[in-house]
Automatic annotation (TrEMBL):
Domain ABC transporter: 6-99
Annotated localization: Membrane
Any one GO molecular function term: ATP hydrolysis activity
Pfam families in UniProt: ABC_tran
Protein name: ABC transporter domain-containing protein
Species this chain originates from: Dioscorea zingiberensis
GO CC terms: membrane
Topology term for the membrane: Multi-pass membrane protein
Keyword list, A-Z: Membrane, Transmembrane, Transmembrane helix, Transport
Keyword Transport appears in the UniProt entry: yes
InterPro entries: ABC_transporter-like_ATP-bd, ABCG_transporters, P-loop_NTPase
UniProt keyword annotation of GTP-binding present: no
Amino acid sequence: MDKAGFKKITGYIAQKDKLFPFLTTRETQMFIAWRRLALAYQELHSLVEHLLNDLGLAHIADLPVIDDNKMRGISGGERQRVSIDVGVMHDPRMLILEELMSRLDNSSALQIVDLQKTMTESKGRTVILSIHQPGFCIVKLFNFILLLADGTVLHHDIVDQLLHRLNAAGLHLPLHVNAVEFAIDSIQNNPITTTRAKS
């Protein structure tokens, strides 16, 4: 697939957002929609209102996307949802999220992943999420895990299969620890053993 074709079917959300700080949430969406989509104003407005409701942003539609001493803006989790809204505006078949959880608390991170899971199921969209600190509740929402270390694929399957691989390598999951978190810790503490483990 050529680059132009790939851009049409994918949305990309970077770790650090590139939002316009003094535009409101609604103004941000309208500006991006106007730049990206060849639609009449009324169609753009309807699309933006629909997306604001879909992503639970209607209540902050008229707040600026920055929080400073002079004006009340939106929270970090809300900023991430605005970024996602921008990324899905053209209804991509695949969405790539780069380390969105790094600056969020557990509750906000879970809300965002849960929202993506819902959109995946309702729209038939593939979501690829890079993450370094997956909490237990977040891991439960994943369909597949791709575990990388030093450029090598150590696991690409469901979470339950990862647990079998760990056991086969003689690494037993402690109580109250999720398999992905344990695998990451095991790789960091004993990379040779984990890399050579076979399922």
